[in-house]
Amino acid sequence: MIVLNLIVSMQDVSLLRNHNQILSNIQWEIKEGEHWGILGLNGSGKTSLLNIINGYHFPTTGEVSVLGNHFGKTNLPELRKEIGFVSSSLDRFSDIVNQETVLRVVISGKFASFGIYENIEAEDWEKADALLESLRLSYLRNQPFHLLSQGEQRRVLIARALMSDPKMLILDEPCSGLDILSREELLTMLHQIADRGCHILYVTHHIEELVEEITHALLIKDGKIFAAGPKKEVITDELLSNIFKVPVEVHWKSDRPSLSITNLKIKQSCIP
């Protein structure tokens, strides 16, 4: 019997902030070879869950292990070098990134910095070029980052996150604000990322973004895990209607779900 390594393990995890219970009794495991989509309403606890995995928040209670590193017994800054992270929260570094070319933005991922403050070796240039080519981004190589479209910028930041050969890539609503073409171009990259042996955690409000490469889904509601498991067992009418608090129907095509609202009655406001 082959025993798969655990990529993430959370046992009895809770998180308390300013006397508010953010997460409660989280029991969750990600096994080797699994790629997870994470769904939940705003304020449900998704971001707090990501912050624990990244080592930015330490749980109030419980045990956490990420990539074989047990929290409380590991160097968290070193662990973060093994985790790629793409989120709109990175926009706070835009003043630095906008001054760079695409190639230099990608290379900066090796150093987990925005801007390059260390020597660049010949193999760094070669690796960044190979990464851009594998993700079909070579045509942007020498373009100033600030001239790219929003969709192109997100794809370049994913390439940057892969520069350090992370074992896990966290994508926090990467398609937010993108048009349909830009979204599909970004989602197409998930196949190449999975083929690199990198485990994907994909956070979204839109189930149609859970493409074939996403094997499992986690639903979080009010700081608790509502359901977790293989994608088709979790992405169901009943479970999604509960966490989204509106009646929905799920439709499947080529292992990719989509959603429609059913029998929703909106109360009319009294307008004087």
Automatic annotation (TrEMBL):
Pfam families: ABC_tran. Residues 8-247 form the ABC transporter domain. The keyword Lyase does not apply. The keyword rRNA-binding does not apply. PROSITE patterns: ABC_TRANSPORTER_1, ABC_TRANSPORTER_2. One of its GO terms (molecular function) is ATP hydrolysis activity. Gene3D superfamilies: P-loop containing nucleotide triphosphate hydrolases (3.40.50.300). Keywords: ATP-binding, Nucleotide-binding. SMART domains: AAA (SM00382). This is Molybdenum ABC transporter ATP-binding protein. It comes from Sporosarcina ureilytica.
